[in-house]
Amino acid sequence: MTAPTALGSVIARDRGLLWHPYAPLRGSLPYEVVGAEGPRLHLVGDDGVRRSVVDAMSSWWSVVHGYRHPALDAAARAQLDRFSHAMFGGLTHAPAVELGERLVAMTPSGLEHVFFADSGSVSVEVAMKVALQYQAAANHPERQRFLTIRGGYHGDTFAAMSVCDPVDGMHSAFPGVLARQVFADRPPLARSADEVRGLTRDTSDAVRRWAASVKNVAFQHGSACAAIIVEPVLQGAGGMRPYPADCLRVLREVADEHGMLLVHDEIATGFGRTGTLFGSDWAGEDARPDILCVGKALTGGYMTLAAMLCTGAVAETIERSQFGAVLHGPTFMANPLACTVAAASLDLLIERGWQRDVARLERGLANLHEAQSLSSVDHVRVLGGVGVIQLREPVDVVAVTRAALERGAWVRPFRNLVYTMPPYVSTDDDLRTTCAAMIGAVAEVHG
Predict the structure, then answer these.
(1) 153 an active-site residue?
(2) Is residue 404 part of a domain?
(3) Distance (Å, whole) CA 263 – CA 223
(4) Which of 102, 117, 106 lies closest to 344, judged by CA?
(5) Tens of pLDDT along 273-314?
(6) Residues annotated as binding site for pyridoxal 5'-phosphate?
(7) What is the pLDDT of residues 337-370, one digit of tens each?
(8) HAMAP family of this UniProt entry (predicted)?
(9) Is 296 a catalytic site residue?
(10) Catalytic one of 296, 419, 424, 430
(11) What is the pLDDT of residues 32-57, one digit of tens each?
């Protein structure tokens, strides 16, 4: 912490001018970012005090390699010296082709074709369009709905919102506008990696009961659905909630039985975050998707880019259809600057050894279990590079954020959750700081 500065004027100018996500124009004052390096943010609050803190959020789960990484900076500069953008209609370029080849090589088997999108939400929109186009081309134009599970989150655009949780999501804010989808029960909660793997009897029994309910929903509505869409193994913004990998196998079986495609939204779970390269890898080949969405960590948090991948069977069916093409085309599709940085980010992921990094995060985040002794805490869970303290009451976001910041970590709680998804480059000391800040903030604010 350093002496007060005059930099707080940016915060004052922001207030009432800029919308922030899920916040009123004149809500709580934001903090100003004045620098960032490695896993740390340099922030100034409205008190003018500059603080260097661990970014326990990875800037909403994307900055896995930390800020100002030399390899990513160099990749961006090199592409800027060539060209920063070119339309993708009728043109192509090496950064897009090379990134597409990398994604096909590293994602679950069978995914052979890539569509680049602007953001995670847009990649979900494209995935849903592709599922609808596939069914129409396969002579099932009546399949206009999607089956999903409660507690999910897939983005803020309209089609994506329609497959978010119908109770805790944003459905009530847009009555009569969102498409009516089919929702099955949430899968059972997995509190540990062993429960994700299904290694406990209680977990297996819970999965069997859940599977019976899902199959019943599919029996009633499956013939009207184009696809099943889920976040594999971990529901992110819907509650940071892991579930057993066997549930993915159940959904694959249900999709096959009822003629639906299976869409895996790996925007939050992809690139190692849960302890496997992709969330669906927990279930192996038995759960491979027909369509996959990736984003967030794809570029290491440097810029917005996402992708939808699909199988050859899906692509070939669409090619034989009336339109012969995926009916989508963003202006910044396959932006060469973003594609170049993304390829460099994927190289880093492999070179650094993401498995070792994420295993180290999981060991460090185990310290969060000390919070279980607090009266306000319902339970604590850790999976890969995700750590969650779940409270018995709604979290005081402003107070907990401030209290954690004073202890050296930037967190952004929501609902009744104080959680972290730290950068993979976080050191053991960074993880200790993060855990102590989260536990201390909860203790101070909620007891």
Answers:
(1) yes
(2) yes
(3) 17
(4) 102
(5) 999 999 999 999 999 999 999 999 999 999 999 999 999 999
(6) 120-121, 265, 330-331
(7) 999 999 999 999 999 999 999 999 999 999 999 9
(8) BioA
(9) yes
(10) 296
(11) 999 999 999 999 999 999 999 999 99
Of the pLDDT bands very low, low, confident and very high (cuts 50, 70, 90), residue 203 is confident
% of the chain residues with pLDDT over 90: 92
**Number of domains comprising the chain:** 2
Residue from 118, 246, 265, 357 carrying the catalytic annotation: 265
The reply to whether 79 and 93 lie within a common domain is yes
Is the domain of 320 the same as that of 429? Answer: no
Lay out the sheet containing 306-311: strands in order across: 111-117, 306-311, 291-294, 261-265, 225-230, 145-149, 182-184
Domain containing 400 equals 10-60+354-446
Residue 4 lies in a domain: no
Q: Which of 134, 153, 302, 424 is catalytic?
A: 153
Q: Give the active site residue among 22, 205, 286, 429.
A: 22
